[in-house]
Design brief:
The protein has 12 helices and 13 strands. By secondary structure, the protein is an alpha/beta fold. The protein has one domain: Rossmann fold, CATH 3.40.50.1100. Strand 6 (about 115-120), helix 3 and strand 7 form a beta-alpha-beta unit. Helix 2 (about 95-110) crosses helix 3 (about 120-135), helix 7 (about 205-215) crosses helix 8 and helix 11 (about 310-320) crosses helix 12. The longest helix is centred in the middle third of the chain and has 15 residues, at about 230-245. The protein starts with 9 loop residues before the first strand and ends in an 8-residue tail after the last strand.
Length: about 375
């Protein structure tokens, strides 16, 4: 097993909202200043070297199960021609493996007691798997309606699984483990800021891979969104490439959600509001919006797109007939293509990448 080694380029953190800088130390709750103002925001590492297109990552040798390097597929369906960045082919079946690699590496490098995560799905299985591989203690906190098969998978890794009655109880218990010396892989404040900022850095690699695999910058990307770790990481990856003029523009980023959350925020509601609505699209459920997701959409001139469960089911079936088997929430990225084309949110011949986040064979 690779032992993680921290990159010595990191010299501090910067708030992605107010730009205030902080020393490089634990910042589970994001920027203290923004949190005290009632407007939580995440932070990102400050690297001391110049960006080369390959560096600006937290680790030289992260713990790995072989995540990343996922295929970029050229497909044509009734939704037209587009590309799929198939994150469902990561080791445990979801994009979360990228973040787990960096998060577990940080837990090792900084000598934490273990790692804790509040999760109702893919993140729990992923963190538990990477922690097991690295032989460090892991606690996954979920609710009592956790899929039984998924629960058995998590337990099989040796992780401790704790079930609570409500989602808010998960966050309260996560905070207690943090006080005991555990590294939190996930958000636990309300309103949320985002997941572990070192872990989120892994999602920048999706942007770099897309650029290399295509040989050009896509015009747009559709990304399923809950708390926005993934879409912000992709945005930051392209933003860094643009800073050094490796690319000329950042793709329009479309945040795909199961009901109006960010849509309402873009229309004027506060991003700290709660938007309570039931959905079976479990992986992108949730009643909150984060600043990081909003920033990614606004700064890329993107949009929020609402996809219904029925549209997701239809798109899941469409992709199965192409031999690509997606979890239902993941299939919303495919359904979003229809909205983007129909509403002329891009030019007719613009290239679009759908980021498919998880496998149909991973129970949710």
């Amino acid at each position: 097993m690779n032992q993680s080694k921290f990159c010595n380029e990191i010299i501090g953190y910067q708030c992605i909202k107010c730009k205030r800088e902080y020393p490089f130390e634990d910042m589970y709750e994001g920027c203290p200043r923004c949190k005290s103002d009632g407007k939580p925001s995440s932070v990102k590492p400050i690297y001391q070297s110049l960006f080369s297109g390959e560096n600006w990552l937290p680790f030289e040798r992260p713990v790995t199960l072989g995540e990343g390097g996922t295929p970029l597929l050229d497909v044509t369906t009734k939704h037209g021609k587009f590309y799929i960045k198939n994150e469902a082919l990561n080791p445990t079946g979801s994009h979360k493996d990228r973040m787990s690699s960096f998060t577990i590496s940080m837990a090792i490098a900084n000598g934490y007691q273990g790692v804790v995560a509040a999760s109702s799905g893919n993140a729990g299985l992923s963190i538990a798997s990477y922690a097991s591989y690295a032989n460090i203690p892991c606690v996954i906190i979920s609710t009592e309606n956790l899929n039984k098969q998924l629960a058995s998978y998590i337990k099989s890794t040796g992780a401790e699984l704790i079930l609570t009655k409500t989602s808010m109880e998960r966050w309260e218990l996560t905070e207690k483990y943090v006080e005991e010396g555990f590294l939190s892989a996930t958000n636990y404040i309300n309103p949320p800021a985002g997941s572990q900022p070192i872990g989120v850095q892994a999602y920048k690699l999706i942007a770099r891979e897309c650029y290399r695999q295509l040989g050009f910058t896509p015009n747009a990307m559709a990304v399923p969104v809950s708390r926005g770790d993934l879409i912000w990481g992709i945005y930051e990856g392209f933003s860094e490439l643009k800073q050094v003029k490796l690319i000329g523009k950042i793709p329009k980023l479309f945040a795909v959600e199961p009901f109006e959350r960010m849509t309402k925020v873009l229309e004027g509601e506060e991003y700290t509001s709660h938007f309570d609505q039931y959905t079976n699209l479990k992986s992108i459920a949730g009643e909150t919006v984060t600043w990081q997701a909003l920033q990614a959409v606004i700064e890329s001139n993107g949009h929020a797109i609402n996809v219904t469960e029925e549209e997701a089911i239809d798109s899941q079936a469409v992709m199965s007939r192409k031999g690509i088997h997606l979890e239902l929430s993941s299939a919303t990225a495919i359904a979003a293509i229809k909205h983007i084309r129909r509403d002329q949110l891009v030019e007719e011949n613009d290239s679009i990448v759908a980021v498919t986040t998880s496998s149909r064979f991973t129970p949710i």
